[in-house]
Amino acid sequence: MKNYKNVHILDHPLIRHKLAIIRNKDTDTKQFRDIVKELATLMAYESFKDVPTQEIEVETPLEKTTQTVVKENSIAIVPILRAGLGMVDGILTLFPAAKVGHIGLYRDEETLEPQEYYCKLPTNIEQKVVMVVDPMLATGGSACDAIKMLKKRGCEKIKLLSIIAAPEGVKKVAENYPEVEVFVAMLDRGLNEHGYIVPGLGDAGDRIFGTK
After folding, report:
1. Residue 100 forms beta bridges with which residues?
2. Cα separation of 164 and 134, whole Å?
3. Given 57, 63, 122, 136, which residue has the most CB atoms within 10 angstroms?
């Protein structure tokens, strides 16, 4: 696959270890859910190296000093429903004050194209760094639609965080939105005839919520 400047593979032994667990078909719902949350935390730590910051004055037991903190009201998390919900708490672990929006998209089983059914976003989202989250970046259709919706609302600083991606999805997002930084934990082989990532881990939403 072509190397895209805006695509980052977060290759780390701990991430690979946790990926092996959630790929296993015998991993139960609770463990799957917990590890998706942990992966989101690890990935958010890496992907927010350029988080907006500000200087504040802090008084230690010995003297006053200037320290760097994350800028208030600078981050929004937008999961693509429903599987993206499984990643939100992991990111909130690092940024508990982040605002959370929701974009609802479902995949047409015949065309594999995303269809919008819900969109609720934080006030002044255009002033924030927006992290779109979805565990699986398959065809890239849902991610591109979510980014398009955010751009229509004036968002300029957008990141995409996905645990597993297919080359087809990475290509679509990277080429349509070269200004959007894409972070994935693993790039898999590709898509099967049903549009699922292989080897993948199955349907992330079903495995997070125990619906199948």
Report:
1. 77
2. 9
3. 136
